[in-house]
Amino acid sequence: MRPSDSHEVSQLNELKIDVGALVVGAHYALAGNIVMVEQMPIYGGYAGGLEETAIIDVATTINSFVMMQATWHLDGPVHVRWGITTAREALAVAGHAARAIEENTHFILGNQYYTLAGPCTVMCLLETAAQAITDTVSGREILSGVAAAKGVSTDMFTAMEARMMAEVAHAVAGMDLQDVNILLDKLVASYEKNYKTAPKGKSFSECIDPVTLQPTDEYIAVYNEAVDILTELGLTYWNK
């Protein structure tokens, strides 16, 4: 590995850690590695509701730096029912926790992306956009994604989802927070009604040419459809 590569160690839910992780964390610290400590608090789990999970999220983030000597913390509040980070409640936890940390520390924060819908679907791209908006306006420095289709199926991810994540982050940077909240509310409402029928999408080889690594015409059309929806909601990035 390169000296610039992150070395991962994970905490457990909620506010717990195992002996193995402590040993690994100690090794990373003594070796002078760049340490990324990961933890995904569960909304609706042991922590409870939105407020309680946000408190747990802040505490876990601080714990990463105090106990594990993290270089940066990788978050990822997940919804206990849907197993995703793009649900309304999970976004609220992530946004409030990051804002609190960013207002009071110099910690470097990241967030993981787990969408319900799979690649080559408008829903997946809109879910990605919603989280990218939340992360950007709440001050996170690192966006880590996208694990589409809940991150549990083989080869269900492509660079097109990451492209959406990046472009939306650029699109909302500097926007007024009140305007962003109105936009975000409409955006989440557009896909959350489809949770029970979320499209599985297509695998990497079905929507990306494995030789040229270029997206298929179908995925480009899907991407442009998602862009049109986001543009109508008020993002002007693609009009420049």
Might you state the CATH topology name?
TIM Barrel
β content, as a range?
A: 5-15%
Averaged pLDDT, please? Answer: 95
Q: For this structure, what is the CATH class?
A: Alpha Beta
Shape: globular
Short description:
The protein is an alpha/beta fold. It contains eight helices and seven strands.
Provide a descriptive summary of the structure in words.
The chain has 240 residues and is α/β, with parallel strands linked by helices. The protein has a single domain (6-239), classed as TIM Barrel (Alpha-Beta Barrel). It contains eight helices and seven strands, in the order βαββαββαβαβαααα. The protein has helices spanning 19-31, 50-66, 88-104, 122-137, 159-172, 177-192, 204-207, 217-233, and strands spanning 6-10, 34-38, 42-43, 72-75, 78-79, 109-114, 142-147. The chain has a five-stranded parallel beta sheet. A two-stranded parallel ribbon has the order 3-5. Strand 6 (109-114), helix 4 and strand 7 (142-147) form a beta-alpha-beta unit. Helix 2 (50-66) crosses helix 3 (88-104) and helix 4 (122-137) packs across helix 8 (217-233). The longest helix has 17 residues, at 50-66. It is globular, with a radius of gyration of 18 Å.
